[in-house]
Amino acid sequence: MRRKILLLDMDGVLVKDKALNPFPDTLPFLDFLRSEGIPFRVVSNNSTRPPSTLLEDLSKKGINLKEDELITPLKILPVYLRELHCSRLLVIGSPLLAEFLVEEGFQVVEDQKVDAVVIGQDRNINFTKLKLATSAVFLESAKIVPVNHSRIVRDDDGLYFPGAGSLAHMLAHACGYSQPIPNLGKPSEEFMRLALSGMEGDEVYLVSDDLYTDLVGAKEQGIKTIFITTGKYSKEELTKANFEPHYVVDSLTELMELLKTL
């Protein structure tokens, strides 16, 4: 039997809301992976809090992960910004994201004279932030650096809002920005290299509820794709996207049974 490596999205797969409440079968599923010796990592595009805080918050919900079992774009972001020599930043994102960057040695300000505009999920986005970000790119040639390429995000009330990737492309369109917009999250090659580092196996499977941000790009890289319907998209979205994942499951319990056959 071929040895499997599992990469698990977090939102919509292991947790069902922004409070990180697990699905009923999340903990039994993780116990199954450990008991069967199936190597896995949780790969999340979460931009609202640093990995260390995310680990603590997950632990409070009963999801106990080791430090190297959780990979997020914030493990890549500081390195990328230093490579660009960007030290002065405007942040569209959560207070925890701004605090994280300050702790990493960056200067976070609230004006347009910056080296880069960092874009994450921001529940307090307003006209002033958008005006400063637009002015930073248009007047100061600031770089646009989204934490991920998330297109759309489902909130706990079932409604949707634009993700960091959509905001980044909106800003680029408004400013005539011609440089490539980096993807520091999954399934970029840099992110996937980090996620797979130190792991041994014959086949890699990515489990996600997001076909646009995650699964399409992963399949192009030769990664096996498993679409789960517990998150933001239903099966009908596959037809709209003209995308066929390798497998489709409706729960982690169903995924558990599938893994026994692979």
What does this structure look like?
By secondary structure, the chain is of the alpha/beta class. It has two domains: 1-76 and 185-202 and 221-228, Rossmann fold; 77-175, Rossmann fold (3-Layer(aba) Sandwich), CATH 3.40.50.1000. It has helices spanning 26-36, 51-60, 77-83, 95-103, 127-140, 164-175, 189-196, 211-220, 236-241, 252-259, and strands at residues 4-8, 40-43, 70-71, 88-92, 107-108, 116-119, 143-146, 152-154, 160-162, 203-208, 224-228, 247-249. The strands form three sheets. The chain has a six-stranded parallel beta sheet with strand order 3-2-1-10-11-12, with helices on both faces. β4 (88-92), α4 (95-103) and β5 form a beta-alpha-beta unit. α5 packs across α6. The chain is globular. The termini are close together. The model has no long low-confidence stretch (mean pLDDT 95).
Average pLDDT level: 95
Low-confidence stretches: none
Count of β-strands: 12
> What is the spatial order of strands in the main beta sheet?
3-2-1-10-11-12
Count up the helices.
10
Helix-strand pattern? EHEHEHEHEEHEEEHHEHEHEH
Rounded to the nearest angstrom, the distance between the terminal CA atoms is 8 Å
The whole-angstrom Rg is 18 Å
> Going by CATH, what is the homologous superfamily of the largest domain?
HAD superfamily/HAD-like
Largest β-sheet summary = 6 strands, parallel
Q: Please state the structural category.
A: alpha/beta
Overall body shape: globular
Q: What CATH first level of the largest domain would be assigned?
A: Alpha Beta
Instruction: From the 3D structure, determine the CATH topology of the largest domain.
Output: Rossmann fold
Looking at the overall shape, the CATH architecture of the largest domain is 3-Layer(aba) Sandwich
GO molecular function, one term: phosphatase activity
InterPro entries: HAD-like_sf (IPR036412), HAD-SF_hydro_IIA (IPR006357), HAD_sf (IPR023214)
Keywords: Hydrolase
Pfam families: Hydrolase_6, Hydrolase_like
